[in-house]
UniProtKB/TrEMBL annotation:
It comes from the Bacteria. This is WYL domain-containing protein. Residues 255-326 form the WCX domain. Residues 22-144 form the PafC HTH domain. Residues 163-229 form the WYL domain.
Length: 349
């Protein structure tokens, strides 16, 4: 049918159960779906979006009265969506025969697409997402929709990824985990844990669970676990134990450490801030961090080279300085070994 018949129809009224923003999101998702599928039964579209057949019919009628006005400020036939009305009304089949504005949507830059694809590749590297068709399809769409060809990025699987698969298996099955664990102080031991949930902090993964050794809820870094075994023993109920909303919780034994940090790097320390107080000192912000021990401070400072300086307490400064000196000594030893080999091995001389 022609545009005159289409223009004579009135848009359906929004139902009270669906708010305007939700309806807009639904329509924005429905149009690309119809264009990609080309020919779609109403019932098939309803099943895909989890709505009623009538909701799809009403949405299609609304789409058919939508468009962009032309240069004259009025709507001409080619300024509106159009569908095959005979197929829609007689066969309950949706076919969009003319669309507008969709091709003018802004595209991701090659760098933006590459960043998103890198994140998806990391997800596909996890054992539970291996050969995921949905992730592969999304990466293909990001590649095709970018303004230029994104840089190819590879993500290697790590030992922590294999451990994560076993941990998630234990969480889903409600079974205890046993593993060897070496904490930040270098103390190792065998742990038996009732796993509760898996969380991530930056590039690190953590297991939150009830530790039968400590008789309390603890956090375990996945890359410090080894020899994991999913037990056949079901987890115990712990109604008196509350799993904290955040990964790190303060305690009376925590150490307060004062550091000077570059303003741009302050958001990276948000999880460790003791309070919101910050004082400007020589272009840096002086803040107080709350840490479980000074050993965790070493890794934190190493991740902010030139951006953070430990001010106090003295034992924290000494720990970081000693750790840095040990690292430098390692480079010096390596250089001496190379020079010794050069003196004793004539090579091509």
């Amino acid at each position: 049918m022609n545009a005159n018949r289409r223009g004579a129809q009135k848009p359906p009224k929004a139902t009270r159960a669906q708010k305007a923003p939700d309806k807009l999101v639904f329509l924005l998702a429905l149009v690309p779906y119809l264009l990609e599928r080309q020919v779609v039964d109403v019932a098939e579209a309803a099943a895909h979006f989890g709505v009623s057949d009538d909701a799809i019919r009403d949405a299609v009628k609304l789409i058919a009265t939508s468009g962009l006005p032309g240069a004259t400020g009025t709507y001409q036939p080619n300024d509106l969506f159009d569908i095959d009305w005979d197929s829609f009304e007689d066969d309950d089949v949706i076919v969009i025969v003319h669309h507008v504005a969709i091709d003018d949507a802004p595209r991701l830059s090659a760098r933006e697409a590459a960043a998103l694809i890198a994140g998806l590749k990391y997800l596909t590297a996890l054992p539970e997402n291996a050969n995921s068709a949905s992730l592969a399809s999304l990466m293909a769409k990001l590649t095709a929709g970018a303004s230029a060809i994104p840089t190819r990025i590879g993500v290697a699987e790590t030992e922590a990824d294999e451990s994560l698969a076993l941990i998630r298996e234990a969480v889903a099955g409600g079974r205890q985990l046993e593993f060897d664990y070496r904490n930040a102080l270098g103390i190792a031991g065998r742990r038996r844990v009732d796993p509760m949930r898996v969380l991530s902090q930056d590039a690190d993964w953590y297991l939150q669970g009830y530790c039968h050794t400590r008789e309390d809820v603890r956090n375990f870094r996945v890359d410090r676990m080894s020899a994991l075994v999913v037990s056949e023993v079901p987890i115990d109920e712990h109604p008196d134990r509350v799993v904290p909303e955040t990964l790190f919780q303060g305690s009376d034994s925590d150490l307060d450490v004062v550091v000077d940090v570059a303003p741009a790097a302050l958001p990276l320390l948000a999880d460790y801030l003791a309070d919101s107080t910050a004082t400007e000192v020589d272009g840096h912000l002086r803040v107080t961090l709350r840490l479980a021990h000074v050993h965790g401070l070493k890794r934190l400072v190493a991740g902010l080279p030139g951006l953070a300086t430990v001010v106090s307490p003295p034992e924290a400064r000494a720990a970081v300085a000693g750790w840095a000196e040990a690292g430098l000594a390692g480079y010096a030893d390596a250089g001496s070994s190379v020079r010794d080999r050069e003196r004793t091995d004539p090579g091509d001389r």
